[in-house]
């Protein structure tokens, strides 16, 4: 795996993680709930979930390689030049 | 054991973590399920290229379909889903109440979707795809279908969000069905127009802005 791919992977992972956390916070705020205390006392579970979350994301990216193939076809074989 | 379970599910933190996991798993499942579709799409595009009959218009159309299959527009459109769905539902109830002839309008909408699709390609690529060799080819329909499937499920969370709002709207739909006596206005107003025109409008705005800057 090249260096830029790892950087890009981590960046896109963080972006979607933040988006999901914002969605969760919004839902908690709407229902007047808080998770701060619970998360603080259950750190191993939180860490485990985050690891599984990241592994799922990694597998998602690795199974989407055909998307790059389509991009490549679009740029090289479908160019007007 | 069961006490621990019931205590856990009463905690909002548990649901927050479950939501995170559900998001990750849904995205992974969609990605795995789309592999075959994406491969078929690429094979079809390669097949058309290898035939050597592609005109400039065909290439523009295929480029637009590949771009569309990424599903970026659905991601942008999904935050507006609640307004679009509930608004469409109100219009549907009103039209059902009036008893308009929906068979004719459904055909009209399909024709409009076709026209909008061609115009979107023309705006983004600068060529009218209807002048190409493959516009009326049987594979055109398949490529469009594959591109639509990819577009829809590339961002499964957006689709789940839209579906959730459809589910929220469904009791109102049932109620309105009993009032108006027909489901057709709802299918026509809520589901059919939701996708392509909204996406086409978004694409048009984006392209017009780009043309304006050029």
Describe the structure.
The complex is a heterodimer of chains A (81) and B (214). Chain A is mainly alpha-helical and 81 residues long. Chain A has one domain (3-76). Chain A contains four helices and no strands. The longest helix of chain A is centred in the first third of the chain and has 28 residues, at 3-30. Chain A starts with a helix and ends in a 5-residue tail after the last helix. Chain B is an all-alpha fold and 214 residues long. Chain B has one domain. In chain B, helix 6 packs parallel to helix 10 (196-213). Chain A binds chain B through residues 20-21, 23-24, 27-28, 31, 33-35, 38-39, 42, 45-46, 49-50, 52-53, 56-57, 59-60, 63-64, 66-67, 69-71, 73-74, 77-80, and chain B through 11-14, 16-17, 19-21, 23-25, 27-28, 31-32, 34-35, 38-39, 41-42, 45-46, 49, 54, 56, 59, 62-63, 66-67, 69-70.
Q: Which secondary structure elements does this structure contain, and how are they paired or packed?
A:
The complex is a heterodimer of chains A (81) and B (214).
Chain A: H1 3-30, H2 36-41, H3 43-62, H4 65-76
Chain B: H1 2-9, H2 12-51, H3 56-69, H4 72-77, H5 81-98, H6 102-125, H7 138-154, H8 156-180, H9 184-191, H10 196-213
Helix pairs in contact in B: 2-7, 3-6, 3-7, 5-8, 5-9, 6-10
Which residues of chain B sit in consecutive blocks of at least 5 with pLDDT less than 50?
Answer: none
Helix content bin of chain A: over 70%
* Beta-strand fraction estimate of chain A: under 5%
State the domain count of chain A.
Answer: 1
Structural class based on helices, strands and sheet pairing of chain A: mainly alpha
**Chain oligomer state:** heterodimer
What structural class do helix, strand and pairing data of chain B support?
A: mainly alpha
Shape of chain A: elongated
- Roughly how many Å is the radius of gyration of chain A? 18 Å
Keywords:
heterodimer; A: 81 residues; mainly alpha; 0% strand; elongated; B: 214 residues; globular
Q: How would you briefly describe this protein structure?
A:
Chain A has 81 residues and is mainly α. Chain A has helices spanning 3-30, 36-41, 43-62, 65-76.
């Amino acid at each position: 795996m090249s260096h830029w791919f790892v950087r890009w992977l981590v960046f896109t992972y963080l972006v979607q993680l933040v988006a999901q956390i914002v969605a969760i916070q919004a839902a908690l705020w709407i229902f007047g709930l808080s998770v701060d205390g619970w998360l603080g006392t259950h750190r191993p579970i939180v860490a485990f979930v985050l690891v599984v979350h990241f592994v799922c994301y990694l597998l998602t990216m690795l199974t989407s390689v055909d998307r790059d193939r389509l991009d490549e076809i679009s740029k090289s074989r479908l160019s007007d030049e | 054991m069961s006490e621990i379970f019931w205590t856990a599910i009463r905690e909002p933190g548990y649901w927050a973590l479950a939501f995170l996991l559900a998001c990750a798993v849904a995205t992974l499942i969609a990605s795995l399920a789309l592999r075959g579709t994406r491969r078929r799409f690429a094979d079809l595009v390669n097949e058309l290229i290898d035939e050597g009959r592609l005109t400039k218009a065909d290439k523009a159309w295929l480029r637009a379909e590949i771009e569309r299959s990424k599903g970026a527009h659905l991601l942008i459109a999904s935050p507006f889903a609640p307004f679009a769905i509930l608004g469409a539902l109100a219009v549907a109830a009103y039209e059902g109440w009036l008893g308009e002839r929906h068979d004719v309008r459904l055909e009209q909408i399909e024709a409009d979707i076709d026209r909008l699709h061609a115009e979107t390609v023309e705006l983004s690529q600068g060529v009218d795809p209807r002048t190409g060799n493959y516009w009326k080819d049987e594979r055109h329909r398949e490529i469009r279908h594959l591109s639509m499937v990819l577009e829809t499920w590339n961002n499964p969370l957006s689709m789940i969000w839209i579906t959730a709002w459809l589910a929220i709207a469904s009791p109102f739909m049932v109620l309105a069905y009993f009032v108006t006596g027909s489901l057709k206005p709802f299918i026509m107003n809520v589901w059919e127009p939701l996708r392509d025109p909204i996406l086409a409008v978004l694409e048009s705005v984006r392209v017009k802005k780009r043309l304006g800057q050029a």
